[in-house]
Amino acid sequence: ATEAEFFGTLGRRAGMQPVPQGAGAFESRLEDRLAAGERLFLLISGLDSCSDAGRSQLAACLRGLSDFHGDALRLVLLGGEGLAALKYAQGDLSLLSHAEPRHWPEWNTGDLMDQARRFTPPLDLSAEEALAILTASGGHPRLILDALRLRAKGRPLPECIRRLEHSSQIEAQFSAIAQDPDQRRDLKDWLARSDLGAFRTWIGNPLLRRLYWLNLLRAEGPAGQERLVWRSPAVVRAGLRVLA
Fold it and tell me: What's the whole-number average pLDDT of the chain?
C-alpha cells in the first residue's frame, strides 16, 4: 500500500473525517484530540501483514505522540516479526524501544477442550485426549485445529495425530524457504537438530528468526534460560518430507 492508502485505511477504521492522506495528517488528527484533553486507546492489529515502510512510519508517529501524551494515550500493537524488528533490531534507537512486549500465551489442555466444544458437532474430549493432541502438535494452533477437525469427522485419535505431519500450511511454509539453495541447505542442518541454540528476544540468525515467527519453533525452558526447539516431531517430519 502507498502511504496514503495505509494511513487512509487506519484513519477510516478510527473514524477520522476527513480521511488522512499520509502519516503527518494521521498524527496531526490524534495530536489535536489529545491536545484537547481526550484520553485515547488505540488498538492496531494485522501489523504482521503490512509493508515495512508502513510499520516504520506508524511507529514513528506513535513514538512521538506517546512521548508527549503518555498519560492520555494507550497503545496496543499486534504483529509478528516486522513489529519485533521495530522493538529490538536497533537496540535503544529502535522506534518501539519503549514498548512492553507481550507474547500470545501457549495453548493448554483447557483451551483445547474449550475449542473442541465449539466444533460442529461439539467434541467432548477427555483431558487425556486433549493432552495427546497438545503434545503431538507442540501447541501449534493450526495443527491443533487440524486434529480437532479430523476428530469431529469421527477419525480415531491415533490417525488424527499421525496426519498432523501432512499439514498443507506447514508444508507450504517449508517449501517457500526451500526455494533458496542456501536456506535449503541450512534448513536441512537445522532439521537434524533437537536444540537450535539459546533463545534471544531478537534472534540473530535470519533463517531461525523466520522459522520462529512462522511458529515452527518455540522457546522452551526456565525463564532466562530458554532454548529454541522445533514445535513438534510432526513439524520436523513435514520439513524433511519437503526437502526429500
Answer: 93
The predicted model gives 166-180 an average pLDDT of 96
Instruction: Please list the alpha-helical segments (H only) found in the chain.
Output: 3-13, 23-35, 52-69, 81-88, 109-117, 127-137, 141-152, 157-162, 168-178, 181-191, 206-213, 233-243
- What element of type H or E holds 77? strand 73-77
Interval 210-233: pLDDT, tens:
999 999 999 999 988 999 999 999
What is the pTM (predicted TM-score) of this model? Answer: 0.88
What does the alpha-carbon distance between residue 128 and residue 125 come to, in Å, rounded to a whole number? 8
Please compute Rg for the chain using Cα positions.
Answer: 21
Q: What span, in angstroms and rounded, lies between the C-alpha atoms of 71 and 84?
A: 24
- When the candidates are 3.30.160, 3.40.50, 2.160.20, 1.10.10, the CATH number that belongs to 168-243 is 1.10.10
Spatial CB neighbours of 51, under 8 Å, sequence gap ≥ 6? 1, 6
